[in-house]
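Students often ask what a holo structure prediction actually looks like on paper. The answer is less mysterious than it sounds. You provide the chain, you provide the ligand, and the output is a string of discrete structure tokens encoding the 3D arrangement of the protein together with alpha-D-glucopyranuronic acid.
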Amino acid sequence: MRRLALALLLTVASTPLARAEDGYDLWLRYPRIDDAALLRSYQATVSSILVGGQSATSRIVADELTRGLTGLLGANVPVSRDLARDGTLVAGTPASSSVIADAALGAELRTIGDEGYLIRSSRVRGTRVTLIAANSDVGVLHGAFHFLRLLQTHQRIDALSVADYPRIQHRILDHWDNLDGSVERGYAGRSLWDWFKLPDYESPRLADYARANASLGINGTVLTNVNANATSLTPPYLVKVAALADVFRPYGLRVYLTARFSAPIEIGGLKTADPLDAQVRAWWHAKTDEIYRLIPDFGGFLVKANSEGQPGPQDYHRTHADGANMLADAVAPHGGIVMWRAFVYSETGNDRHKQAYTEFQPLDGAFRPNVLLQVKNGAIDFQPREPFHPLFGAMPRTPLMLELQITKEYLGFATHLVYLAPLFEEVLRADTYAKGEGSLVSKVIDGSLHGYTQTGIAGVANTGTDRNWCGSVFACANWHAFGRLAWNPTLSSADLADEWLRMTFTNNAAFVATVKQMMLSSRQAAVDYMTPLGLHHQMARGHHYGPGPWVAGGARADQTSVYYNRADALGLGFDRTETGTNAVSQYAAPVRDRFASLDRVGEDYLLWFHHVPWTYKMASGQSLWNELTARYCRGVESVRGMEGVWRGLEPFVDAERFDETRSFLAIQEKEARWWRDASILYFQTFSKQPIAPDACGPPADTLEHFMSINLRYVPGTNP
Ligand code: GCU
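The corresponding structure tokens follow.
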């Protein structure tokens, strides 16, 4: 007996424990290929690695290929010094690798720019090779990740002919991180930047962060919150920023900072921040020179001005263009850019939907060439569903970049499983009709519609110090989808879900097909249980978690829910047609006419643009009231469906990630019911109609109860 116990103990001790699947490895796990035939074919194709160059980036390429291939092929794949044998994977540029130079790819290399790459199955000097070729080391790194992705997703690698390049120049994560370590609208722990310990300690996690971004092709990171703190521009902080830049640089990731417009006063000792004042201009020039001395490849500034209490040029009766151009002139000699946000949100007494267009459209053409106007996907604020922002297509002479939110401020934070790629895709594929049919938002932002010289896209990051990076495993799918769409906005949400699932969990076809379906339907589910039929901004005040359709009063009408839902005895919804605020007039004629027409607007945006009678007959034949309640129920049912599906997938997923997802889906189901019950009961006080019997059952509590819920210490709230 004792001998048996000892033998068991020895067996356990000598068996390597299965690696904990806590989500840290994201989509870069590289487990051994579990399909024997495929594994053999991969092993036959790649048996050694030859990476050209000595740069830090080249070393990262070699490490990544070694790590990836050793993991995926389940055996050591050696790094060789020369082209010794068939099956060599050669990575480099014509300058760094004589093999790549000999492959004579010149003409094709000219088509892929600085960051793109070619992957070829080929023969060089009589040897069978796979080539990863690019014009820069960072291009090679992007190609290396692409190559590994092919194996991770079980695709063939023996007859490759890939040419890929980013369609958008500036592919950026915006971190709303504060210097005290908190993250505005962040639900994954604290900021990844440990400002206090920087620059003396650089957590290994920083390189892992950069690596994950490089694997997607993200090439910029704005380190600080748009609600900016001028302290980040002071010398002690710039040294910290430089330390981060040093870690990120080999991964092709540039750093940017937010510029607080009043910094010349707050840290410069000036009396004004007027952008036309000579001293102010000189201050910004000197500050910018100081930054570039420390960080020669500093990307530039992101600015939120004259919005939600932030200072800006309008404080001095100057325009946004005056403010942006002043900063643009300061960074221009260094090749920097200014991303000036169009999210202006101040009390105007007019429809908030109209404010950005009203302020910015007349300034088209007034900005310096190195200014990009950063426009949120919709005119309100990252709602579960919004029509595209009317500025897209309306500023042909000003580069517009798209700002998406990866962190789920209005979509249930980290615990609700809401896959955002369908939302991103919906915006990118929206047709502005600015130059006739086919004038898609994606063509505005990739520059092809108006011939922009600068192009960009930004996502408000969802990363933090949580072990799994994003607060939940599935939330990281949104980081992945953003990065991949930033590289190529024509990719489909279905393909991206497929890819992410294979890389994050398993290539098992049944698992992938089932979970992909769940992911793709999850965004519509959230729309249904939170804000169906074009309702918007119905969240609890301040923290945006949970329902608050009754939110009224306070300092500003346009910060309340009743402002947006306009519920009354007649009906529901915001009249933005000619009889209302006429926000529809900001869109090109075909879009305007569609949005303005009750018949043609479609149910997704119905209550966004129209005040609709409770008795209005919907496409289903039901009244608005019955359709509305059915939608809330449909949302709850969808989440229940996801729960059921996930429960059946236990055999495919490691315990930790399975349990997390199961628990979070239970939270989501509970809160979907909360949304449904609270919203239906509130709107019923206006419709005065019974809740139609349906699958959802009666509300679990009274309206008074739901209205009395007052959550405190909610994550992500303003410090
Ligand atoms: C939203 C969000 C704020 C953020 C703002 C912005 O209003 O709630 O936290 O500062 O957007 O994008 O500037």
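The pocket of alpha-D-glucopyranuronic acid is lined by residues 184-185, 226-227, 304, 308, 343, 381, 409 (CB under 6 Å).
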